[in-house]
Amino acid sequence: MSESSRVVVIGSGPGGLTAAATLAAVGHSVTVIEHHTIAGGNCTVFRHGDYEFDVGLHYLGNTSPGSFMHSLLRALGIADRITFRPLDHEFDTLIFPDFTFRVPSGWDEYTQRLTDHFPHDEQAIADYIEILRAVAIQARAGSGDHLFQWGLASLSSLYDHCGLSPECRGVVSHWSGLYGSAPHESAVAIHAVITDHYMTGASYPEGGGQMLPARLVEVIEACGGEVRVNTTARRIVVEDGRATGVELESGEIIAADVVISNADYKRTMLDLVGADHLTEETAATVTDAVMTYPLLCVYVVVDTDLSARIPNTNFFVFPSFDAEAPYEALRKGEFPDEPFAYMAFASLKDPDNKRLCPPGHTNFQIMTLAPRDYHTWGVESGPTDGTLYRRNDTYRERKSQITESLIDQAEKAIGPFRDRIVHIETATPLTQERYTRSTSGTSYGLMASPDQTGPFRPGYATEIENLYLVGASTQSGHGILGTMVGGIGCASAVTGRDLMRVLAPDAVPLVDASIFPPDPDDWDPMEASRGEAMRQLRAQRTSS
Is residue 133 scored above 70 in pLDDT? Predict the structure, then answer.
C-alpha cells in the first residue's frame, strides 16, 4: 500500500471511524460513506422534541488513563476532548424474584460478594473466577494454557466443571445480555473479556454516546478525510479478484486502492461483494454464519426526577435464575412471557446534559433481546429488502405487547411510573435494520459461540485483494471498545504496520491535539457527526 492510498470505508460505526481516523492520521486519503444521516452506527443518538436518546452506548468499562480507550484517544489527539463520568461503584443491580445482587467494581470484591451471597459455592466460585480471570488476561496476550483449554469451551461447561449452583449461575450469567447468547452457546472467552472489561468500573461519556463519533469525525476531517452521510453503497467493485472501488445507489463510483467494510458481515460478503466473487467454501461459511439475537429498546421520559430514590446504576430484572430459559423462547421466534429487562438511566449518568430532557424529568431505556425471525413481526423480510412494516397490524400489536411487558419488569426495579410517562417509543430489530442494514437487526454481529469466536471469526483481510473488514463480526469482537480495537487492527493490516505501538504510554501521538480549535458555545456532537458537506448544506437551508 502506498503512503497516500485512496481508502473508502463503508459504514461509520466506531470500528469504521477508528480505522478511518487512524489511516487518515498516517497520511492516506480517506472517504467514509454512511447510509444514515449521521455517523456513528450504534454509537449515535436521536432526538424527538426536548428529548435525546442513545441508540447503543449505555456504559463503558476500562476508560481510565492508561486504558486502551484512553490510549487510543490520546494517539488520535482527542483524549482531552472526551470526559468519562463514572457510574456508582456498584454499577449493575440485578433483581431476581427472591433477592437483589449488586455488582461491584474489582475482581476481588466481585468474588467476595458472590461468596458472601452463595457461601455453599465458595470453592466453586474461587475455581470459576480463577479460570475466568486467567482467560481474560491471556485473551489480551493471545496465548496461554487457560485460554487454550477454556477460551473456546462453552460457558455452561465451565459452570459444570466448577460445580456452580443454579442460583449462582443465574447471577454470573447476567453479562450474557451484553453479548446476546445463552451459556451453552457462548464461548468462555467472550464472557471472560466482557466481565474483565467492567472490573475496573463503569463510565459514560459526558454529552452522550454521540461524543465518540463526533470526535473521530473531527480527526478524519482535520487529517484531510471526508465523511459522507446519507450515502448508500450498492456494491463493492471487484475486478480480477481485487476491490477497486465502491458503487453508490446514486450510480456514482468512488475509485479506491483499498475498501474497508464496516457494514454488516453477511451483507458485505453476499450483497456488496456477491457470492460469485467468493470461493464456494467462503460463500457457504458466510451463508451459514449465525448472528446474535437483536435488541428491542423502549425509550422513556417521566415527569419526575428519579435521582433521589435510585442509585446511578444499571438495573437487570430477571424472572428466574435459569439463564437458558429466555433464549429457548427466542430460538422459537417468541418472546418469553416474562422477558428479562435491562435498564439504563441517561439522566443519572449524565445529569448536566440539557438535551436529554427538561429539569425535573428522567430519561431512561428498557431493553431486552428479541427473536431473529421476521415472522415474529408479521413480515417475510426486512426493510433492507424494501419491506414496509410500521403499519403492519401484527407488528404494531407485538410491539405494544412487549412494551407493556418491559414496563411491568421495569416497575419491579424502580416502582410504578406508568402514570408519569410523558414520552415513550419502542425501537424493534426492524428499526435497527432500517438504519444500520444489519442482518436481522442485530447490534452485536456474529454470535460469540465457540465455533464463531477468536480464530473462527473473520479476520481483517479477506480473500478479495484490497478488501478489508472491521466491526462487530471480526476477531476483535463487538461493543464500542471491541470494534475500536478492531479499527486499529484493521488499519495495521491495511498498512502492514503495527499501529498498536502508538498506544504505548511513551509513543508519540499520531495527531497533535493542538490542531483542533476549541468548541464554539453552540457546538453539537450530533451536527459534528454529519460530516462537513452535510453541515454546510444544513447551514445553507437554515439561512435561506
Answer: yes
